[in-house]
């Protein structure tokens, strides 16, 4: 079932016990391991209510896939300026924009930002996991404190990004709450989709209005964007096959108000030939 965590929180606040499907027992255990129960069938629920058996809260055993793979800045060869920018963005909660040709490591740099951020508090983790539970993601005691890293494809619709539906569901910006939203190939997104990020970036929440009422989802996230300097990916050399007018039209797909939301903009250049083969400078190993 979807939304087990919000339901378990509401039941605890009201002083009630919640019986959930056995598959969702691990989520209910995050809220109250002693009060809530899980069952495989309705017959087990009837037996519990009639006093014929006592239900317990089933929790799935940890799996090898559930272990978090910690990634470090040492995985990246060169790009010391980009690594420094990540450290500043992590320390100050800044939004970051990378500009550079393909193959310079923009995506790899962005994926390391979550591991530079401090661990979420219990309240932050519960709020983030509650939003994720509305989309039926697997949440358990081993991954509920991991900061989310969301990277939607550039073909994503506005509803996929901000949320929507007849019964409102959270979109990518809410699923990135207390984490990171990474938009690669930003000019390839529809302009209206990108501009829909402007208000949540300021307010930290998204409100979806329907005839039945309004639904409010949290959306406090860090935004990291990446784009190429031209439609061909390069702005100089033999590979630059675009004229200045084409480049301006390409970069003009990003509105000025959206660009103003980025606190830092950084060019990620191509590495000198042979740097990857030689190993290059990997920088310091971060230990917390």
Outline the structure in words.
34% of the residues lie in helices and 15% in strands. By secondary structure, it is an alpha/beta fold. The strands form four sheets. Strands 4-7-10-3-11 form a five-stranded parallel β-sheet. A two-stranded parallel sheet has the order 1-2. A hairpin with a 2-residue loop joins strand 8 (205-210) and strand 9. Helix 1 (4-14) crosses helix 2. The radius of gyration is 23 Å and the shape is elongated. The two termini are 36 Å apart.
Compact description:
This protein has helices at residues 4-14, 25-31, 42-49, 80-92, 106-111, 113-116, 122-133, 158-162, 172-175, 191-195, 198-203, 244-251, 256-260, 275-278; strands spanning 19-21, 37-39, 96-99, 149-150, 163-164, 169-170, 180-183, 205-210, 213-218, 222-227, 264-267. It is α/β, with parallel strands linked by helices.
- Rough shape? elongated
Report the structural category. Answer: alpha/beta
* Overall strand count: 11
Largest sheet: 5 strands, parallel
Mean pLDDT: 85
Helix content: 25-40%
Total number of helical segments? 14
- First-residue to last-residue Cα separation: 36 Å
Strand order of the largest sheet: 4-7-10-3-11
How much strand? 5-15%
Low-confidence stretches are: none
